[in-house]
Amino acid sequence: MGSKTGIWTPTVALDLSRDNRVGDGGFFPTQSLIVGQKVTAGTAENGSIHKVSSLSEVEQLCGKGSQLYDLMKSYFSYTSTQPVYIGVLDDADTATKYSNSFTLTVTDPEAGVLGIRVNDEKYTVAVTDADTATTLGDRIVAALEDAAHYYEVTNALGVVKFECRNGGLAVGGVDVRFSPDSEDTPPTGVTVADGVVVAGTIDPDVDDVLMNVGDTYFINMWGPYADTASLQKFIDKLNTLGDKYNAADSIYHTIVRGTASTIRAKAQALRSIRFALHCIEGMKQSVNNYLGTSAREVTTSIAKDVNKPLHNLRLRGVRVWSDGLEWSERNSLAGDGVATINPETGELEAPVTCYVATDDERRWENIFALSYMRRSFRDHITGMYGQAVIITRPGATISPSKKVITLATARVSAISWYADQVRAAHAQDEQRFADELLVSLADSDTIEWFLPVTLVVPFVVGDGLISYRQISEEE
Questions:
Q1: Which of 104-108, 249-253, 351-355, 465-469 has the lowest mean pLDDT?
Q2: C-alpha dihedral (252, 258, 261, 264), degrees to nearest 10
């Protein structure tokens, strides 16, 4: 899947013809598409795509407590002014739901407090000396059950069950830990035993959303669907969204967990510049929380400055965790095309795609920068020549009132545009650009440009050397 047919190099290509003379007004579209699932209370149709600007809109479309509602709750937990769309899916007809249960045993309890962490969120439940397993279970449900959660909590005779409201594997699980902290000693007479974990199965068909994308451009797509079939459908769609130059300027972001070896094998099987696998092994928060948070922070950053390095980007809303992969494992995975997060800081460590070449060719910032420059150049050309005629055989005297474009003026305009990009620190090396710039006629009504841009290099790590110099007595 996604195998290379050649080395991907930084190049911007564009043509100007009767079919695409009108630009997009200079707007660099940083909009994202976030794909997820609804519950039956949501009004959205399966496969529909909606632009949303608030959580209340998501609630109406997807239903409170749905997987997509939970994901967008994290997205909207901090202010974002960037346009965002949701792609809504029904559960698959044959899907099963994830569930996790725990059995309480209560015998002559002493009054106290039972500590519980659900997806790293701390709750406390009072225990009385008159409690039974049933009454304590009911009190746990009262403390934890919330219609806004993507899971529901029930109790039957002291068996407390957590079950996702949506079916499928990609929805993820519920991380539940009783008395998780060293200071949380369960009251005497209360014990908690793990019950049965039932994994969710059968994800919906992402094609239901992707077939409705049309020609809409999304710089990033986000979703929890990381199975082989879904990934292939995303790459097929992203390939069709590229123009005839197959511009690699859209990325599908998803998550991956497991051992370093299983994660590496998944990345190596993809080998595509269109995929970003985010390694969140060991994270206690939900998959939805991470996807919503990372979608917001990455989109906001590139909207402010498309060249700003995403290395060490703080993912506000992601809590640190203690039992993730070691640094050496994460560093090795980054070299194999896995986007890693530092569990000690909650920061994005390696913003890379699964395409393995040089660091410059797979970093997200460079893909976004090329996307920005392609659209910037299109706006520059269409702004100057949007109503021009193409003169393929120069030499005749043209009326000054007539707007025309020739190969010569097309070349001069490209060089002028690139100088602006250098001044804005989006690019460098004007001489190489002028030397290697190609402008040609594809046919009688189409001019093509191949722009050999040299991107600026993000500063990521600085090295220092400590050395000692021996001074002789003569000095």
A1: 465-469
A2: 0
